[in-house]
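Run log, item B.
One chain of 119 residues. Sequence copied directly from the ordering sheet:
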Amino acid sequence: MNTRKQGAQKEEQVCAYLLSKGVRICERNFRCRQGEIDIIGYDGEYLVFFEVKYRSSGSRGTAAEAVGYAKQQRICRVADYYRVTHHCMEDTPIRFDVAAMDGESLTWVKNAFDYLARR
């Protein structure tokens, strides 16, 4: 199976898991010039931007470790664009989570990183 197809399959698994936990999914694979966010949804009152990462083995580190500083910056820029284009209220609480899949094990890391404002 190619990596794109495998990634789509893992995102499906993550979506099913999040739905089972009460997350209301609004968007999948939201793209703009700044980049992409895998899943956007509401967990209670929080507008959550999810990054999905998959590692079949630990030879290159864990899936959660793959969301480095540069990726976090890109996700925050896309989140800013999403919030403006979707007219999200300024006081809507936001969160950045990572859904990390190591093999078949899924870990939902809530509040995985803080918002990184543009410099």
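Observations after the first pass:
- Helices lie at 3-20, 69-85.
- The domain at 3-109 is CATH 3.40.1350.10 (Trna Endonuclease; Chain: A, domain 1).
Flagged for discussion on Thursday.
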